[in-house]
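Before going further, learn to read the protein records used in this course. The integers have meaning only within a learned vocabulary of local backbone shapes. The record below shows the convention in full.
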Amino acid sequence: MAIEQIKMPQLGESVTEGTISKWLVSVGDKVNKYDPLAEVMTDKVNAEVPSSFSGVIKELVAEEGETYEVGQVILTIETEGGGEAAAAPAPSEPKQEVDAPSASAPSAQAAPAKSEAPNGVRYSPAVLKLSQEHGIDLNQVTGSGGGGRITRKDLMKIIESGDIPTAAAAAAASAPAPKKTEAPAPSSAPSQPASPKQAAPAPNVPVMPGDVEIPVTGVRKAIAANMLRSKHEAPHAWTMMEVDVTNLVEYRNSIKGEFKQKEGFNLTFFAFFVKAVAQALKEFPQINSMWAGDKIIQKKDINISIAVATDDALFVPVIKAADEKTIKGIAREINDLALKVRTGKLTSAEMQGGTFTVNNTGSFGSVQSMGIINYPQAAILQVESIVKRPVVMNNGMIAVRDMVNLCMSLDHRVLDGLVCGRFLQRVKEILENTSKENTTIY
């Protein structure tokens, strides 16, 4: 008999942790290799964790609703002849593991120097990066992880509270207090709080009769964490451009019935916008980039993330190689991905690799919005509602036209207004020249 460990897998690029949303097994259950053990949520995807072994569930180490770092043990299984199973890699093994502190670990397996503090305490790269960016003194942080290990979740709580423990603050706190006779306070001076930055982790909201308390689900926690990280790390800037899509609307409306009958799915306006963005990204590759600390990564592939919402969650599936697809091909993928989201069949692979996000905020009537960037991408484009408005034409006459606003949020570490303005101008040009005479959907 042998006791084998199942660890938190890495379920996507840049994913460093996951939340156990639901256990699918209990202690004492018999499982086969590849049987699902738990549902896990990250800021990018919901997925099932399969078993790497056949055996009996020994212990559920992780708890539902709690967040654990990639590589952290979440479950143990008692196996027979475990050596053979352990030798073969399983789907649940993470692509890379985050080391946890261990007193018995040999020095040859120590974490890289950048993941080790001067006092010898080891931290995960994600924790070190976040602490350095926000000036957090890790010596003053109490960790909630195994063995008191500090997790990224611990740091996010500190950042959100606004009470940052810095090395300077620690030095000031440890300095001998001055004698009362050295600096007497005027008797008329009102007392001041010790720290104006002190704040409770969550606001104290009174619950009145008739109020409804709604527990925060794991999905909502994951969305909140990713949005908070994006806003904390990426300096957001915003720009907007209005586009006359009258010809596009006429063209699409003239062929949508025939298209639906022939292809079996709808030809939406959104497919035209995604195609225009993909074409413009090919011409302005700077937009198709990501911030990587000491460098900017300009991505070769143009993979468009699209936002698909359910009643209580937001998913961001990806249209791979969108620049190589026709409008019909993009329309099909939009239809298929949206259906998978709403039926719970979207896979983790279908949410990975996005390089730029296009959000169809116009689907619910919005005409202007400011999106939060889909970290670690450099920009997001909101396609607003198409509305009829009176417009002054080049000949000075007023005409009723179909107009739409394109609203773009950008990471100002990666992009500047000039290149983003030119990119939006190109998207505008493509859309305004979309017509029966100039455009084919096949």
Observations:
- The first helix runs from residue 82 to 87.
- The first strand starts at residue 2 and ends at 7.
- The chain has three domains: 2-87, 116-169, 235-432.
- The domain at 116-169 is CATH 4.10.320.10 (Dihydrolipoamide Transferase).
